[in-house]
Structure formats: C-alpha cells, structure tokens
Specification:
Elements (H helix, E strand, L loop, with lengths): L6 H12 L16 H4 L3 E9 L2 E15 L2 E16 L2 E13 L5 E8 L6 E8 L2 E8 L2 E8 L5 E2 L3 H8 L6 E8 L4 E17 L2 E12 L5 E7 L5 E6 L4 E6 L1 H4 L8 H5 L3 E2 L9 E7 L5 H4 L6 E5 L5 E7 L33 H11 L5 H15 L12 H7 L4 H14 L4 E10 L2 E11 L3 E5 L4 E3 L4 E3 L15 H6 L4 E4 L2
Parallel strand pairs: 9-10, 16-25
Antiparallel strand pairs: 1-2, 1-15, 2-3, 3-4, 4-5, 5-6, 6-7, 7-8, 10-11, 11-12, 12-13, 13-14, 14-15, 17-19, 17-25, 18-19, 20-21, 20-24, 21-22, 22-23
Length: 499
C-alpha cells in the first residue's frame, strides 16, 4: 500500500485558476466594453494542462438574469479533471453558479463538487455585508457567517476589476476578494507586466500579461494573458506546472492524456534509503525560491535549521518513546484544545455510529495513549481495501466502506479519537515509501504532548521518515489550507540524507 495526499495538489492548482476564472466582463462600467457585454450570452472554454499533459477543462457561461427581482448577471462555471494515481483513474468535478450586481456587489453563490466521492454543496447568500455559508455533505449541513469588507468582490470577478483599473503596463493595484473555493477573503496584488502577442488558431492576438499574487499558501502567482476587451487566452502558474489554454468547446471536451500525479510529483531522495520504522532521520533540504522555516514545522520530533539563507537548511527527526503512565486521562476537557475535539464536515465525531464504534474499540480504557494505540491498530487492520478511488473521503464514509488511502485512514482515526475525547488533528507532509518521498496525511493525538501516529502504514508512532509541513490546522469546508506544504514544495524540493 502506497500512501498519498495527492488529490490536494490538483485541487489547489485548479483553484488558482478558478479564483481568476476569466470573469472579466461581469459588470463593466459604461466606458468599458468587453466580450461579454458586447454579445451576451457569452461562453468560453479552456484546456487544463499539468506538466504539459491535458488533465481536463474549464468553462464559463454568462448571461443576464433576475435575482430577488433585481437585474443581475448570472455566471455558471465549472471544471473537470481526470488523473491517475498509481494507475487508478480519479475524476473530479466542480461547478459554480453565482449572481452579482452591475457594480460587482456579490449576491449569491452555489458550489457543487465530488472530491469526497459524494456530492458536496456549498451555498452562500450575501446580506448586509455578511455572507451566510451553508455546507451540506452526507445529509448534514453546517453553517457559518463571514463578514465581507465593503469593497470586496467575488474572486472570480477580478479580471473585470483589472479592466476598470486599465491595462497599462506598470499598473499595480490590490483586490479584496471573497473566494468561492476557500470561502474566505484573500488579498490579491495585481500588476500589468507587459504587452505581448499570443497565437490563437493561427492568428496573432495582442494581449497584456497580468500577474495576480494571492496571499495564501506562501503567496501564489498566476499570470494571465488577456486582450483589451477582456478575452483571456492563457493562464499559468509556473511553480505548479499548471497551464490553461483557450480552445473551442469540442477540443475542451476531447480526451485527456495519461498523467499519474503521484509518480510525477514524488520527491527522489539523495543518499541512503531509510527503512520502515526508523527512529532517526537527518537530511539537508533545499527549496529554491522558498522558505524552509515557513514550510516545515519545528516541534518535539522535528527540528529545522537554516544554513545562512531561508531556502537551504537541515531537518532532524528523532522519535521519543511514549510513557503511557504520563498520558492524560479521558476525556480531555482542556479548553485550549477544544478545536481539536469538535466535529466537522469531514470528521463527524458526533455521529452515533462513529461514537459507538469508538467505544467498542477502546472499551473502558481511560488512558489516552493506550486508547489511541487501540484506534490506530483497528483502523489499520480493518481498512483492508487500501485504494485510491476517492479524492478526500469523510470519517463517516470511511467507517461505512472501510476503504481508502491515507486521507480516509486519517479522518477515520481522528473521528474515532475525538468521539472519545482525545484531541486530534491532521498532519500533512512527506513520507518515504519504497523508492521516494510521497505527499501524505497522518493523524496527531494529544496525550499530554502531541504524538504523530500512522494508521495507514500500520505504525503506532509515525516513523522518522515522515517529514512534516508547518500547515497544522483544523479541517475547514474546503480543506485546501492543508495543501499549503504541497504548494510550497511541488517540483522544487531537494532532500539529501546525511544520517
């Protein structure tokens, strides 16, 4: 069984483009004429390519409509991707519908996706400067409210904002955007960097190259090539190997290429290969144009130092024995740890079946470490069908089907642990397996200190070949925050073992 946390790579890279999905003509002023306002309804298609291979497509459709008796613009957009993970095909889809006023004021959105293998629906309604967000998955709906700055727009409308600011080389400006994928405000710095020409169907199109740098995941830069009337012909995030090219609908709907995202994105190790179960690992790491200290966590098991500059350093991982006699009793009721005990859309620790199974596994045990070990062994031994069919399943889904990869093992473990009052959270990083380092998920539990565990590979403590990223967070509606380490390291990280 080879672990993974790879689907997040594709979702994160796709998301960078969905944030700027050609929505440049949604509500132009009377002085600005775009391809949309000149001829509605409007429709555009793009091929999605990763590392030179077609993996799917994007589309956008725009027309005028009514929303709550107001004249608005309705935008329907979507993406489809098909990739392989160790030869297993996985298809991911996401569609979005939203309404805005002529002055770009956000009104409503509806997003549907299938990364869990089941339909996830996120609906947002904006009223009095606040967006109410309802997320529905497996029949359960969660709700939250997000305050919007007065000048915020939907992130998908940033190109219209760019046209309003003027396509003048050297022009720079900031955008406060509400992402329909992160369900949060992001700041985007835009710059018109050059005037260029691009070939489309044998014709040379005069375009402007515009850089959008988002303040998420260490800062991600996407470049777009657009005309003065807001037609986008190309989008690219070079650091992630992702490019979108304008094509006709027939070409967009054509076959995808063969692209195994796991094999294409693993990290080869320089030096001696670690054996499973090792308790010590030390390596020099290099991250061109990156920041070692912001990428990798410093904690009890992992020490990170830099070598004169922020993109070169050393990582030392040493396991510490756990004394079960020092483990805190259950249930843990420390208010500071409450966020790691709550249920979420992906970790339904309040589900009756999960609670019942957790009690069955642990019995009357009140020692947090012994209980954690019992859960770890049970998840490893009972999730026998270790496959790659689902992008990111839920704890409830994993318990019902008892199949999946590292993400399903992890959320099931965390769901069972939280159900018993054991604080637990998702750790993201890399693990060495057979021939290379692979992106991976594993759980951490708090038993008086945080301890990494490994139900996917059948290890009680995650061994020292687990290199942990710094993005330790509680799962959210999108879980995209967990991909920060992937974004910071993809296709750039070099690891050389020295001990």
């Amino acid at each position: 069984m080879i672990p993974k946390h790879i689907y997040i790579i594709l979702i994160v890279t796709i998301i960078m483009f969905l944030l700027t999905l050609k929505f440049s003509g949604n509500a132009p002023s009377s002085e600005v004429k775009t391809v949309w306002t000149a001829n509605l309804p409007y429709e555009s298609w793009m091929n999605a390519n990763m590392m030179g291979v077609k993996v799917g497509y994007l589309y956008i459709k725009v027309d005028r409509a009514k929303y709550n008796d107001q004249d608005v613009l309705r935008v329907d957009s979507g993406m489809f991707t098909e990739i392989n993970r160790f030869g297993v095909s996985i298809k991911l889809t996401k569609t979005k519908l939203f309404y805005i006023k002529e002055d770009l004021t956000p009104l409503y959105f509806l997003s549907k996706s299938n990364e869990t293998g089941q339909e996830k629906i996120v609906e947002g309604t904006v009223k009095n400067g606040t967006v109410q967000i309802k997320t529905t998955l497996e029949g359960k709906t969660t709700e939250k409210y997000q305050k919007l700055p007065s000048d915020a727009i939907f992130a998908e409308a940033i190109e219209d904002f760019t046209i309003r600011k003027g396509l003048k080389v050297g022009n720079k400006f900031n955008i406060k955007a509400f992402s329909l994928d992160l369900y949060d405000i992001i700041n985007i710095n835009a710059e018109v960097v050059s005037k260029d020409k691009i070939n489309y169907n044998g014709q040379q199109k005069e375009v402007y190259a515009v850089d959008y740098t988002m303040d998420i995941m260490g800062g991600i830069k996407t470049r777009e090539w657009m005309t003065e009337d807001a037609e986008v012909y190309k989008m690219e995030t070079a650091s992630l190997g992702m490019t979108f090219i304008k094509v006709n609908k027939q070409e967009a709907l054509g076959e995808v290429g063969q692209f195994d995202i796991v094999l294409k994105t693993n990290v080869q190790l320089i030096g001696e290969k670690p054996i499973p179960g090792i308790s010590h690992f030390k390596a020099n790491v290099s991250l061109p144009d990156g920041d070692i200290l912001k990428t990798f966590v410093n904690n009890d098991r992992q020490k990170v130092t830099i070598k004169g500059n922020k993109n070169e350093g050393t990582i030392t991982i040493t396991l510490k024995d756990v004394d079960e006699n020092t483990a805190i009793p259950l249930p843990v009721k420390d208010e500071k740890l409450s966020q790691y005990l709550k249920p979420s859309i992906y970790v339904q620790s309040d589900d009756p079946e999960i609670i019942s199974k957790a009690k069955e596994i642990v019995g009357s045990e009140k020692n947090s470490w012994i209980a954690s070990m019992k859960i770890c062994r049970w998840v490893y031994e009972n999730m026998k069908n270790k496959n790659y069919k689902v992008g990111f399943g839920t704890a409830k889904q994993a318990l019902k089907e008892l199949q999946g990869d590292c993400s399903e093992h992890t959320v099931l473990f965390i769901g069972l642990a939280r159900a018993l009052g054991i604080p637990s959270r998702i750790a993201t990083g890399l693990v060495y397996h057979k021939d290379a380092f692979y992106y991976h998920f594993w759980p951490e539990v708090y038993i008086g200190r945080w301890v990494s565990m490994e139900p996917t590979l059948g290890q009680i403590q995650a061994d020292a070949s687990h290199i942990q990223f710094s993005s330790i967070q509680v799962e959210t509606e999108s879980n995209l925050e967990l991909g920060e380490g992937v974004v910071r390291t993809l296709n750039r990280l070099i690891i050389e073992r020295i001990e």
